[in-house]
Amino acid sequence: MLAFAWIGCAMGQSKIDTITLKKGEVLDILLLSQYPDKEAALKSYFQTAFPVAKKMSYQPQPGFKIVDHSQGNHRPDLLILGKWRDVEVREAFLRKIVEEVADFHERRRDIWSYFGLQYFEMQENMSIEIHRDQYQVATAFWLESDEQPSKFYEKWGKVVQASGGHILIELQEGKSPAGYQYNPQFFVITSWKSEAAFRDFQGKIQKIERDNIQHVNELILQ
């Protein structure tokens, strides 16, 4: 299930970033926190690893700074987006990169204190507009059991709409490589006219029983 549009804020005026995705392409969602004083290592990493990724179709996309964490124990600082031509080439990169850059994973561990990754195959063509003038929240849901639905999650989406929010991106059936585990059953980004509107929604949603929900991670984006 996929539904997209992106909204953010910048410099007190509307700025629009556009992302286009074709059916079969892959969208990366990376969640990162960087160690301090790693600029030189980061520059070297990009000079060695990025050419391999680019050759294999990788294209960086607009992302977000994470300014707060309202739920959950995953606390990254950045939400980064990227896309690949298809699932096969995305997964081949993980094998190819260690042939080209033997210490690839060690470099990542040296630079980033937190590195979570989940990627999704697009089921249809779409164009995503990121309007940088609203309040956005990323929410991830882990279920206790894949064998049954969550009435809480179903109600959650309805309460978002009833509270004046908009579901801008809704993803499921993602993949998370070994060593970079961030693999919720649902990953959603919502947009709100104001922080107050989102806080009002939070008050309403807290009254609903969380059936079949193991964990919720909620990140405030900018």
Give the ordered list of helices and strands. EEEHEEHHEEEHEEHE
What average pLDDT do the residues reach? 91
Please give the alpha-carbon distance between the first and last residues: 25 Å
What is the molecular shape?
A: globular
Strand content: 35-45%
Could you tell me the number of beta strands?
11
Question: What is the subunit organization of this protein?
Answer: single chain
Q: Outline the biggest β-sheet.
A: 8 strands, antiparallel
Give me the side-by-side strand order of the main sheet.
6-3-5-4-11-8-10-9
What structural class results from the helix and strand content?
Answer: alpha+beta
Helix amount: 25-40%
Low-confidence stretches: 1-12
Helices, by number, come to 5
Rg, please?
18 Å
Q: Topology, pairings included?
A:
Blueprint: E1 6-7, E2 16-21, E3 26-34, H1 39-55, E4 59-71, E5 78-84, H2 87-100, H3 104-111, E6 112-121, E7 126-131, E8 135-143, H4 151-162, E9 166-172, E10 186-192, H5 195-205, E11 213-221
Parallel strand pairs: 1-7
Antiparallel strand pairs: 2-7, 3-5, 3-6, 4-5, 4-11, 8-10, 8-11, 9-10
Helix pairs in contact: 1-3
